[in-house]
């Protein structure tokens, strides 16, 4: 008898080990352990009567887990459901009522899980409901509540995920919020982190990417505090959110952390291939084509073995894109590239993979055009279907680009520009549908090639006014939206549901599941959103692009210099005295290199108390680079500029130039803007009559306490937030309605999507994106921390870091450093600047005087309007 009891205990131990292996993405190992446990139980059947319940419970648990994990590993969902159905009669044989209730809850939970994996989310809800009823009853009668509570939370969170997939945002949020509250109040920290992961998925689905990133960071922080490895699934969700935001480098870093571990642990092919495909996408966005190819090929091989046709197609597209991008860049086109793309397209099952097949054919179109085979390209392009209402923005933009490039090949540049204009209008509509600035999330990436082609065409005509119009049309899209706060919670919920259903439909298509019910619900929610006033202004009205005449009128005695480049040709459009002049400035690459070297030198000069010989050496190099930039960018414009105040609209790497260090611009009031449209909006904004001044000091800064105390002397009624008081919510509340805010905090600039730059405050990151939610943003913001330096600029990106969201959400002026600044230099510069402001000078004038004292150690710029 003792031997039978020992066998049951060993089987229970194998069940626990199998569960742990499966939950750690080692499903095959888990299945082996579970089957060993089942074999042990079968070896002692029939069991003695006194051990009947224990044997039966162990068998039911093992069989339930084998059915679930085995189905997930093999993809045979119907077999898993049948296995669970076969278990149900055994539940009636369990004599202990509590055990019977507990086991019924487990079986219903697993049944619901399998239905979800088959895309039958609506059906899964009834089984989750039944499971929660059983688990609630089990909780009420349990002597040890925590293990039962763990299972209850798992079911609650998973039902929340099912609601997420169904687009039921309110019900999903209710489940997940309840789960977090229960886990936190009972000290179940690992469970709290897991429920937060589900909440992060929901936030991303509804378009609130900053909230998703924050929730994922909270989860990760819990694991770190517990000294537990962050689960790969959480890292993957973080990477997915970062890719949605266009932050490819950060997404790649997250995936690089987990991929070696997943390989070592021999994770399920599906999970590993999913992570590799994400990594390939991140590499493609980062222009690391070899890495993109490698990971795409590996993901494709794994997915072929797994049998997911959609995943195979997506991996194929990423690999083709890398090859086509390299071929177009180098003009070295492999002879089989077109046939490979078309073979891939023809091999994709229709209609399910129609979009992927069309993408492959569009890549073939671009290759054929580069080879000069215009007729063949036109024949292929004619087969590309019109996009539907839910077709991805990527598909739409690539189709427009193909049509524009074909028009150029046919010599019809007017038609090409019309296609580009239509494509950018479509992209605008996508942004508008997202709610303006509230969800720009990297969409600027999709229009870049269209914009570059437009500038190339117009620049060939040397028409300054027309080039000005096109550059305004294509740059700095984050600033197109007027800052309007959404005040209708019902509208906000409907818009969130529409976005969630968009994602749900794409996921169902990806997995080969029916979408009719989701599309019907999407149409209903969209009608409700329109009825409630979506696009009437409460979600951010798009500003019209500034016209040359109105910019010239607003300039008055000042001049505006807008830089642009095409290939290696750099030009400046100078707007002065009501006219626009085009000036060619030579090599864009040479200017970019000088800007990069100057930035390196200024970073090297930043530390306080450097040895004098080192200062002289680095200062000599910095002066040399400043002279080169001055000679290339400013002196050819001197006859047009005179001694006027200046508005500068940089391009690409020129955003990293601290203009006040250039010899010809010393002591000149200079305002830097992401576009003339953004400058015009800031210049015409009402100057706040508020008197509130806010001083913020984030954690971990050295030497800023005295700086803020000194600044407080200029502003006797200033509110200071420092230490534990400088939380995200308290800083946002304080900034709302302020006339002036001075912020000293660590931060990170995100060149891939400026709206996801962040400040580190006492309780975590404040994303620049969140500034758009302020009812009345501060009129002027001053950043003093060197960590916000903009030293990773990428051409074509929207690159003003944390300042971008402030300007886009209605702040008039932002003062920020473009390179590292030493503590002493920053404190002295800020004292001089605020003294100038207090003396009545405008921001641009006060900053010009401040920089002139010590230009190379005060690389600040005035952004927005001066």
What structural keywords apply?
single chain, 866 residues, alpha/beta, 6-stranded mixed β-sheet, 5-stranded mixed β-sheet, 14 strands, 61% helix, globular
Describe this structure in words.
61% of the residues lie in helices and 8% in strands. The radius of gyration is 30 Å and the shape is globular. Helix 15 (309-330) packs parallel to helix 17 (354-370). The chain is of the alpha/beta class. The protein has 34 helices and 14 strands.
Give the % helix: 55-70%
The pLDDT mean sits at: 84
DSSP summary, beta strand count: 14
| Unreliable stretches | 432-444, 534-540, 787-799
Shape: globular
Treating each run of at least 4 consecutive H or I residues as one helix, how many helices? Answer: 34
Distance between the termini: 88 Å
**Within the largest sheet, what's the order of strands?**
7-6-8-12-13-14
Instruction: Describe the oligomeric state of these chains in a short phrase.
Output: single chain
What structural class is derived from the secondary structure elements? alpha/beta
Rg, rounded, reads 30 Å
What proportion of the residues form beta strands (DSSP E)?
Answer: 5-15%
Major beta sheet summary: 6 strands, mixed
